[in-house]
């Protein structure tokens, strides 16, 4: 399996560090991994067994994630965007991945949305589409506006196979920081926290206070406060570990303030060992830092980064402080004196104050990525199976006849507009199943000028089945009443919608009492459409054309049904000697269902082994103007 991970760290290095851990885990499982990094190069990053592709790097200043800067000091412009985008796409083409992972996007990195969108489009343009997964930490920065959350959810539902949430829902569910809608919820795949091998918690603590601030410049204010606080502390030895993203001039300033109880170093690869033996840790509350604390069990002072409306670290720190696992010192209250007081409070915390969370995130992520790849292969095989059937029909000049039925239109809606626009765009005939007692004058006005046939969808789409029985409108009442209302419904629809209404009955929920069928012709019907393979072209004097392919998962949240199974079943149905019906329900389509329906209709409409017929042809009915009066 080949995996491409696209990540850009802009301030610290946490996103890249997590991507590196995931990459190493996948590589250790025998997979080929490429990490395409769009942030600044990070020294000492362990990428054993992982290929690194360095995109032209960008970073932000002062936590302003809307304005990004290149290494040459110029603002990110269209030329640099194009350069980064092409470099990322070149990596995609060369690696030819089975799985693509996007770190943070579409929940963030909006300033780089163009390159991520280009990558997502490339994924979907490949005939054998790779799996596409988003990768996010336990806490996201909450959206500034509700529409941003809705947009992210739409992209995930329509384009992504899942979202790897690198956290523990028992500790911090994603809902704590991000609105999780019904479309997003089933796509969240919790992995546990992604952590490297932590140094074992030490039974003997030293006197050292270890101050860290991640790999970027965000910790400078904390470092400067720690320099002064170290002079106020007469009992401890302080060590400040300065990330490699901090400019050399700032590092020299800090190092120049060292004294007999203060050591200033650059960040070291043995950080976890230092932490395990420290008396207190002073740090921000980024994802990786908190995991290090969880493994080491070290009492901690957390000073969350909160500039530029960032809330992620504050939410995480508040949770740990509320659980008695750390001392919270808000950044707005940071001073040498406050920091010294917080260190004293942390010394009083119990040993082993690490957070009890699931840190099996790497292993679980590997399993989920492998499963996504298998699912993508099955989908590709489903499309291939469909293609083989159609190719054979084209070669023998026996194109499969298909027709398109959509149920439950009643009034104008955005979904109906989208459905009709799709019909016009593809030029595929459409039959709308409309319940007579639900149809409105507004629907009739909206359908003027639209080339769509109308079928009779029962009476009022009401369920008359007793509790415990499958829903049914056409049953469980006196047959004479049902037949009378069906006849009245056909007449009412014709009065409202004209001669586009065909005398074809589509029972709601595709169910009808068998005793009613022989009587339908007497009340004006000439055709019947339910679901599944028909037993014959006619039934009790009625032409029969059923629907066969329904892409909606009705008993599992109404999202997209298993795509591979849907395609495999359709391939089998196309071998039948009958018109094959595609069934849609525009009112309940989510973005994934719309995407699949549009993709399937376009594929079938363009293939010489398939031909779409209108409802008149599907039921072998004459055009409306040729029908004999009844």
TrEMBL record:
Residues 272-346 form the Glycosyl transferase family 28 C-terminal domain. Coiled coil: none annotated. GO terms for biological process: carbohydrate metabolic process. This is Predicted glycosyl transferase. It holds the Pfam family Glyco_tran_28_C. The keyword Transferase applies. It comes from the Bacteria. Residues 1-19 form the signal peptide. GO terms for molecular function: hexosyltransferase activity. PANTHER family: SLL1722 PROTEIN, UDP-N-ACETYLGLUCOSAMINE--N-ACETYLMURAMYL-(PENTAPEPTIDE) PYROPHOSPHORYL-UNDECAPRENOL N-ACETYLGLUCOSAMINE TRANSFERASE 1. InterPro entries: CE4_u4-like (IPR049591), Glyco_hydro/deAcase_b/a-brl (IPR011330), Glyco_trans_28_C (IPR007235).
């Amino acid at each position: 399996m080949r995996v491409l991970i696209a990540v850009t760290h802009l301030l610290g290095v946490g996103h890249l560090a997590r991507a590196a851990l995931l990459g190493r885990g996948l590589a250790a499982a025998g997979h080929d991994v490429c990490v395409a990094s769009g942030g600044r190069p990070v020294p000492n990053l362990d990428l054993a067994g992982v290929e690194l592709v360095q995109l032209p790097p960008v970073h932000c200043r002062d936590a302003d994630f809307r304005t990004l800067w290149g290494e040459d000091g110029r603002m990110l412009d269209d030329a640099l965007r194009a350069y980064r985008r092409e470099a990322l796409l070149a990596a995609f083409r060369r690696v030819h991945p089975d799985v693509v992972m996007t770190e943070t996007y579409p929940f963030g990195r909006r300033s780089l949305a163009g390159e991520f969108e280009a990558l997502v489009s490339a994924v979907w343009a490949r005939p054998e589409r790779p799996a596409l997964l988003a990768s996010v930490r336990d806490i996201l920065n909450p959206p500034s506006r509700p529409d941003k959350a809705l947009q992210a959810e739409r992209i995930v539902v329509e384009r992504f196979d899942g979202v790897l949430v690198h956290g523990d829902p028992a500790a911090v569910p994603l809902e704590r920081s991000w609105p999780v809608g019904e479309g997003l919820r089933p796509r969240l795949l919790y992995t546990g926290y992604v952590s490297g091998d932590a140094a074992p918690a030490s039974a003997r603590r030293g006197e050292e206070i270890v101050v860290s601030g991640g790999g970027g410049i965000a910790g400078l204010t904390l470092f400067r406060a720690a320099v002064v606080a170290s002079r106020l502390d007469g009992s401890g030895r302080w060590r400040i570990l300065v990330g490699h993203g901090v400019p050399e001039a700032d590092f020299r300033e800090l190092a120049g303030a060292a004294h007999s109880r203060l050591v200033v170093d650059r960040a070291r690869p043995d950080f976890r060992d230092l932490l395990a033996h420290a008396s207190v840790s002073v740090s921000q509350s980024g994802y990786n830092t908190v995991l290090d604390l969880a493994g080491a069990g070290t009492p901690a002072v957390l000073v969350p980064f909160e500039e530029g409306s960032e809330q992620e670290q504050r939410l995480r720190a508040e949770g740990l402080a509320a659980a008695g696992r750390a001392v919270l010192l808000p950044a707005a209250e940071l001073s040498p004196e406050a920091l010294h007081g917080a260190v004293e409070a942390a010394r009083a915390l119990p040993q082993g104050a690490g957070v009890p969370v699931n840190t099996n995130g790497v292993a679980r992520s590997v399993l989920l990525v492998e499963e996504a790849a298998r699912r993508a292969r099955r989908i590709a095989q489903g499309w291939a199976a469909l293609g083989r059937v159609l190719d054979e029909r084209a070669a023998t000049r026996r194109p499969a006849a298909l027709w398109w039925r959509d149920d439950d239109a009643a009034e104008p809606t955005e979904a109906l507009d989208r459905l009709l626009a799709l019909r016009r765009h593809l030029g595929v005939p459409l039959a709308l199943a409309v319940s007579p007692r639900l149809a409105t004058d507004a629907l009739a006005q909206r359908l003027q000028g639209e080339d769509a046939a109308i079928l009779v969808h029962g009476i009022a789409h009401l369920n008359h089945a007793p509790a415990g029985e499958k829903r049914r409108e056409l049953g469980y009442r006196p047959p004479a009443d049902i037949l009378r209302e069906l006849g009245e419904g056909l007449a009412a629809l014709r009065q409202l919608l004209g001669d586009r209404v065909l005398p074809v009955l589509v029972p709601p929920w595709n169910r009808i009492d068998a005793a009613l069928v022989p009587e339908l012709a007497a009340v004006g019907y000439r055709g019947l459409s339910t679901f599944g393979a028909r037993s014959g072209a006619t039934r009790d004097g009625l032409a029969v054309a059923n629907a066969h392919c329904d892409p909606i998962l009705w008993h599992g949240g109404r999202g997209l049904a298993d795509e591979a199974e849907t395609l495999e079943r359709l391939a089998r149905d196309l071998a039948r000697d009958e018109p094959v019906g595609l069934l849609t329900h525009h009112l309940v389509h989510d973005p994934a269902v719309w995407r699949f329906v549009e993709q399937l209709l376009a594929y079938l409409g363009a293939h010489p082994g398939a031909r779409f017929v209108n409802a008149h042809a599907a039921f072998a009915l004459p055009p409306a103007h040729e029908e004999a009066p009844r």
